Amino acid sequence: MIILFGGRKGGPGKTTLATNIAIYLKNILKKDVIIVDADHQSTASRWSQDRIENKFESIPTLQASENIKDNLIALDQKYDYVIVDT
């Protein structure tokens, strides 16, 4: 399943929601999850790197831009949940 958090305005909490939902799906529901960071600020990617550096369990994160439709479809076949932060 692909879940997208998007909007034009910065600051309403898209990345916060995306990362917290990803943690919930992975740690509580034991699902296979990937985060696709399609935001030009790359906040989800920095969040993921911070988790690795601080020795927390990481969630795979992929940076993407432009036309990502085919990548999302392919990832949807591989993971239980694809969380997209745009």
What's the gyration radius in Å?
12 Å
Residue stretches low in confidence (pLDDT < 50, at least 5 long) are none
Number of strands: 4
Mean pLDDT: 92
Please provide a written account of the structure:
With 86 residues, this protein is an alpha/beta fold. 42% of the residues lie in helices and 20% in strands. It has helices at 14-28, 43-53, 69-78, and strands at 2-5, 33-37, 61-63, 81-85. A 4-stranded parallel sheet has the order 1-4-2-3, sandwiched between helices. It is globular and about 30 Å long. The mean pLDDT is 92.
Secondary-structure map with pairings?
Elements: E1 2-5, H1 14-28, E2 33-37, H2 43-53, E3 61-63, H3 69-78, E4 81-85
Short overview:
The chain has 3 helices and 4 strands; from the N terminus they run βαβαβαβ. A 4-stranded parallel beta sheet has the order 1-4-2-3, sandwiched between helices.
Descriptive tags:
86 residues; alpha/beta; 4-stranded parallel beta sheet; 3 helices
